[in-house]
Amino acid sequence: MNKKNCCLIGIPVEDGTDINGCLMGPDAFRTAGLNSTLESLGHTVFDYGNVSPRHTAPQTHANQAIHHLNEIIGWTLSIEEAAYERASKSEFPIFLGGDHSLSIGTVTGVTRAAKDKGQEQFVLWLDAHPDFHTLDTTKSGNLHGTPVAYFAGLCGFEGVYPEPKATVLPKNICMMGIRSVDEAEKHRLAESKIYIFDMRSIDENGIVNPLKDFLETVKEANGALHVSLDVDFLEPDIAPAVGTMVPGGATFREAHLIMEMLCDSGLVTSLDLVELNPFLDERGRTAKLMVDLCASLLGRKVLDRPTRSF
Fold it and tell me: How far apart are CA 274 and CA 139, in angstroms?
């Protein structure tokens, strides 16, 4: 594959969840050797450090369950700008989380950059959850459950979240691995044009053909493809370092196959690695697995894979 200028951007946000630990995620990815792993594959790596949230005026919302609203707004403003800047320079941004609320800013930022280049933006959402709540529908108040609804341009954020400078067409979003959906999300997803391949669909039909079809759509549109990889997409037995553990996730082999297919396509332009909670990990095994998956996405072949001992 073509060698890339990979830029690492740490986003130590945990305000989108109610479980502490995700703020350590970016440093755990670095400690697990992400930089050296990518360099060993021939890529150039620039580490831009960690993003910090902006200070914002106090905001309130009628939904009393919501917490850390001001913090998420501040994070979104700084993340969107950082994502836009890096993607505008035709680098390969890798956003190190942090909880999945960071995608409120990463996806809108890279989408704005794609729009400037005259490209359609596509998103592959690898997650146990669709994160398709609005501010009105979330019962937990955890704002890491809102990014897809926001960057897909749904109503329900006006006057609270920053007005998005670019959004993704729902038909350009593909979700894989979904297996935990709230009732409000279920109804809204049924009305959307988002492609959804839940774990039952994957069990019945496999991952190859659905992913091939989606990648062909991206290719035909000459689109930019953002991949958002949540730790809870994976089977908890192999990736325990997540606060939103849902049994029945992707296996080691399925996850690497997806990454290798994405690599072969040459279509991926940016990447989220999210919801890594090192406080819940076992001797760094989840961080190392996520680094290995990133390596597969960026060119590591089966014969190059190192043996891991835990």
Answer: 22
Q: Looking at the domain assignment, is residue 51 inside a domain?
A: yes
Residue 309 lies in a domain: no
CATH number at residue 225: 3.40.800.10
Residue pointed to by tokens 């689109």:
223
The number of angstroms, rounded, from the C-alpha of 95 to the middle of its chain's C-alpha atoms is 8
Distance, in Å, from the CA atom of 156 to the CA atom of 276, rounded to the nearest integer, reads: 28
Any domain includes 165: yes
243 is in which domain, residue-wise?
5-304
251 located within any domain: yes
Q: What is the pTM of this model?
A: 0.96
Contact between 103 and 158 under an 8 Å Cβ cutoff? The reply is no
- Neighbour-count burial for 68-80, b at 16+ CB within 10 Å, e otherwise: bbebbbbbbbbbb
Give 220: exposed, middle or buried? Use CB within 10 Å, 0-12, 13-18, 19+: exposed
Say if strands 121-126 and 224-230 run parallel, antiparallel, or are unpaired.
Answer: parallel
- Residue pLDDT, tens place only, 247-302: 999 999 999 999 999 999 999 999 999 999 999 999 999 999 999 999 999 999 86
Q: Give catalytic residue positions.
A: 100, 127, 129, 131, 144, 230, 232, 275
Into how many domains does the chain fold?
A: 1
CA Rg value for the chain? 18
